[in-house]
Design goal:
Length: 93
């Protein structure tokens, strides 16, 4: 039951953290890679929403039947739903 509640990030992170490079330089590179991986995963929702904010700022038609911020709200809900459905994060997060 607990395994079903964990995100894919948790599974991938555990596999990556179990790898131990042989050299000091390799360990340094690996730690930097892990840091970037964790930060990138944490920014997934925010980065996607920021991209939508910028794209709609430049490309949103003036006479659109749906207001831009209404679209962004619905898009934020859709992004969150997709992250949950794809197990990229959990409800608890």
């Amino acid at each position: 039951m607990l395994a079903r509640m964990q995100s894919r990030f948790h599974d991938v992170r555990l596999r990556l953290e179990n790898y131990v490079p042989r050299t000091a330089g390799g360990r340094l590179f690996w730690e930097l890679f892990l840091f970037g991986f964790k930060e990138g995963w944490a920014c997934l929702f925010g980065g996607t929403l920021l991209a939508l904010l910028l794209l709609t700022k430049w490309l949103w038609p003036a006479g659109a039947p749906l207001a831009r911020y209404d679209f962004l709200f619905l898009a934020a809900l859709a992004i969150q739903a997709m992250l949950l459905l794809l197990r990229m994060e959990t409800v608890r997060e």
